[in-house]
Amino acid sequence: MTRTARTAVDRTVLGATGLVLLLTGSWLAASDRALAHRLPSWWPTAGTGAVLLDPGRLARLRGEGWWTPTVMAASIGLTVLLALWTLGQLRPGPARRLALPSPGCTVRPRVLAEALAARATAVPGVARGRARVLPRRGRRLEVELRVRLAPDTSPDAVLPALRAVTAEADAAAAPYTVHTRLRLSAASHRMPHVR
User: Fold this and answer.
1) E strand or H helix at 34, and its extent?
2) Any stretches that span the bilayer, and where are they (predicted)?
3) How far apart are CA 122 and CA 104, in angstroms?
4) How far apart are CA 84 and CA 39, in angstroms?
5) pLDDT at 22 over 60
6) Mapping DSSP to helix (H, G, I), strand (E, B) and coil, where does residue 97 land?
7) Contacts by 39-47, CB closer than 8 A, 24 or more apart
8) Chain-centre distance of CA 102, in angstroms?
9) Which terminus of the chain is more solvent-facing, meaning fewer CB atoms within 10 Å of its CB: N or C?
10) Least confident of 10-24, 82-96, 134-148
11) Residues 14-37: what's their mean pLDDT?
């Protein structure tokens, strides 16, 4: 299922569920005797002691041959449908490819992130680097670069080289506008404690 179709199905299911809950809640609120005098005259109200399905009618329905198989089939079908929908929400969609300036060339965001992290880790004074590339609407990329500095390395020492790495990433993703967020952290100088 494509991403737009999946989004449309998600919004339709959420909208229908919200509408059912809104109507049910309105009916339950309206059936309260304290609110009955405030409702318009055309609003249906439940009588005193009324229930949605009285015991006599339920017993008649259970006596019908179609009732039990219909209820079971509807319950099983609804359970399977909701389970499949839930599993579809957990599974990531297909990896989107980013078009490059050369005709027919594409790159996956994860590959671009791995290359960016490798370039950042190669900078002297950087102990570890991680990157995420998130495609956004309208030819825009958000790049999150997290860098852990080696002990006794100041951020001023590595920042020019990291700026060069991010500028290189901007040039590599040429048709896209890149917004880069850089997070620097330092390794802690933990001393072993003796007890």
Assistant:
1) helix 33-36
2) 66-87
3) 30
4) 41
5) yes
6) coil
7) none
8) 32
9) C
10) 82-96
11) 77
Please give the structure tokens belonging to residue 189: 């100088």
Query: Position of tokens 């389970």?
Result: 83
Question: What is the rounded CA–CA span in Å between residue 109 and residue 95?
Answer: 8
How far, in Å, CA of 172 to CA of 22, rounded?
50
Please tell me the predicted confidence (pLDDT) of residue 52. Answer: 63
Q: Which of 131, 129, 130, 134 is nearest to 95 (CA)?
A: 134
Sort residue 17 into left (φ over 0), alpha (ψ -120 to 50) or beta: alpha
3-state helix, strand, coil in the chain (%, to 5): 50, 20, 35
| CA–CA distance, 92 with 64 (Å, rounded to integer) | 45
SS3 (DSSP) at 155: helix
Please tell me the total number of residues recorded for the chain in this structure: 195
Contact 3, 93 (CB under 8 A): yes
Tell me if 150 sits within 8 A of 189, measured CB to CB: no
- 137-148 pLDDT, tens digit per residue, is 778 888 898 999
- pTM (whole model) above 0.70: no
Domains of the chain: 3-90 (no CATH), 98-186 (3.30.70.1350)
Secondary structure of residue 62 in the 3-state scheme: helix
Chain position carrying tokens 């989004």: 7
DSSP structural state of residue 117: H
